[in-house]
Specification:
Blueprint: E1 3-19, E2 22-37, E3 41-45, H1 52-59, E4 67-72, E5 75-76, H2 86-91, E6 92-95, H3 99-102, H4 109-119, H5 125-138, H6 144-147, H7 157-169, E7 175-179, H8 187-204, E8 207-212, H9 215-221, E9 224-229, E10 232-238, H10 239-244, H11 249-256, E11 309-312, E12 315-317
Parallel strand pairs: 3-8, 3-9, 6-7, 7-8
Antiparallel strand pairs: 1-2, 1-4, 4-5, 9-10, 10-12, 11-12
Helix pairs in contact: 4-5, 5-7
């Protein structure tokens, strides 16, 4: 399949004021490379502060990277001006974590879905109404005429997120960033939204970059998965391989943290990662996970940053346990 989105050695630095004339540099994303093919889905998984959301915003070019290259359909959009990004803005859309914040509460459903069509000057009023009706049917908000005049405060959390999905879908994009799209809705609605994503991907061939802290939902929806820790990808591979046999100690800990429905587990003590993620202002030397790693090798893990090595077919990890 042809590569749709390519991120080559992407780096993102933020400057934080320390004093009046001095600032600190926080490297949120550090030398990350990813390739997303047409019709594929990649999950970006990690704790809060791992840099996964920043990476997603870089993929949408909502942020301009400090270093590296970003290619969409072979075109370099790394530092393109907004005027030159108009075609990309139509082909790439985002679904964000909080439907309360990402949707204007002073617009009704019809206005919310019509806005991107107006911005990109799509069709006449009758054509736009037909496209809006199609979008609402695809996200299962029916009868359509009942939802068109409604405002978001009259909708449930799941319905709001469906409106956000419909807004992202209405321009028929090739690429969608889904940033924690199910973390703020109840469990039953989560399953419905993820099933909807799969259905839309199969129908329209949309590529997804799915950002989440929940490795279980990423495992259900994504064909490939990248695990991030403190701005670096520490493991990458096919989802089935990565979940069945995780190699990096951080990935193993994330999988152990997934709740199990087995009642007998309530009496078993679960192994968890000790400590907290270090500050990105001053990351530890060597492997960034080594202060919390149960398999820490003295004189190696704390000296030099490990490189990604193959541990199976289409599966790689950055860990000194696998030379």
């Amino acid at each position: 399949m042809k590569e749709l989105l390519v991120m080559n050695h992407i780096t993102m630095d933020f400057h934080v004021k320390k004093q009046l004339f001095s600032s600190l540099i926080i490297r949120a994303v550090d030398d990350v490379s990813l390739k997303l093919e047409g019709g594929e889905s990649i999950g970006i998984v990690g704790e809060s502060g791992s840099g996964k959301t920043t990476l997603g915003r870089l993929a949408l070019r909502l942020l301009k990277p400090t270093g590296g290259d970003l290619l969409f359909r072979g075109q370099d959009i790394t530092r393109a001006s907004e005027a030159n990004l108009k075609v990309f803005r139509r082909q790439a859309q985002g679904i964000f974590q909080d439907p309360f914040a990402s949707i204007d509460p002073f617009m009704n459903v019809h206005q919310i879905l019509e806005e991107p069509l107006l911005i990109h000057r799509v069709g006449s009023q009758d054509v736009r109404r037909e496209l809006i009706s199609q979008a609402l049917k695809e996200v299962k908000l029916t009868p359509v005429n009942d939802f068109l005049p409604r405002y978001t405060h009259t909708l449930s959390g799941g319905q709001r997120q469906r409106v956000a999905v419909g807004r992202a879908l209405i321009l028929r994009p090739d690429f969608i960033l889904a940033d924690e799209p199910v973390s703020m809705i109840d469990a039953s609605s989560r399953a419905e939204i993820l099933y909807l994503f799969k259905e839309l991907q199969e129908k329209h061939g949309i590529s997804f970059l799915y950002v989440t802290h929940d490795i279980a939902t990423a495992g259900y929806f994504c064909r490939q998965m990248a695990v991030m820790y403190l701005g670096k990808i520490v493991e990458f591979g096919r989802t089935s391989s990565l979940i069945r046999k995780p190699h990096h100690p951080y990935t193993q800990a994330l999988i152990r943290a997934v709740p199990s429905p087995d009642p007998s587990n309530r009496t078993h003590e679960r192994l968890v990662i000790s400590g907290e993620s270090p500050s990105p202002i001053k990351p530890p030397p060597g492997c960034r996970f080594h202060p919390r790693c149960p398999n820490f090798i003295v004189g190696k893990c704390d000296v030099k940053l490990p490189q990604m090595v193959a541990v199976g077919e289409d599966h790689s990890t950055a860990c000194y346990l696998y030379p």
